[in-house]
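User: I'll paste a sequence; please echo it back and then give the predicted structure.

Assistant: Echoing your sequence first, then the prediction.
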Amino acid sequence: MTGADVRRVAGRIRWYVRELTGESVYDRYVAHARAHDPEAPVLSRRAFEHARMDAREADPREGFRCC
């Protein structure tokens, strides 16, 4: 395996882990927000994750809570 092959495999593993853990959700949010309205303010990662967790807890179908 060459160095380029190792980097390509590592990049794919990184992509998979980020998708699996939900870390890439913020990146997609920022890309979407900037594409649709470049002048609109974008939430910080912390504020985005806080709002995301609040939404998950408010809707039991989306979150981990059963009640």
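Residues 3-58 form one domain. The helical segments are 3-21, 24-36, 45-58.
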